[in-house]
What does this fold into?
Amino acid sequence: MSDILIYAGDPRRYSKPLATRVGDEIFEGEKGMFESPLLTIDGNHIYQGKKGWLESPLATVEERKVYAGDKGLWEKPIATIRGGQVFPGREGDTDHPIATVSPKDTMAAAAAAVLILLPVQD
It folds into this structure.
C-alpha cells in the first residue's frame, strides 16, 4: 500500500498535507515529519495514538459514515465520505468538503474527519 495523503479542504487550495496514512497509522503532516502516529486504524475503528494506547475508539466508520466513539453512542454521524472527500454531518448537509484524501481511501478519509472535527491531542 502506498502512502495516502490527507488534505484539509480541497487539495487544489492547500499544497501541504494535513496528515499521511502509512499502513494503519496516521501521521501529522508529510511522511517522516513525526515518529509517533496521531491515530491508528483497526478494522472500522480509529484510535488515538499507537494501537493499544487507549481502549475506546475515537470514531467508528460504518457505510461511509463516521461516528464519534463507538457506533451506537451517537445517532448522527459527524461526517460522511463521498469519493475521496469528507463532508461534515449527514449526506447532503453541505457541498463543501472539509477534507480530501489521495488516493481515495475510506479509512484515511475517516481519519481526516477525526483530525478536523474531534479534539485529538498528541
Summary: The chain has one domain: 4-117.
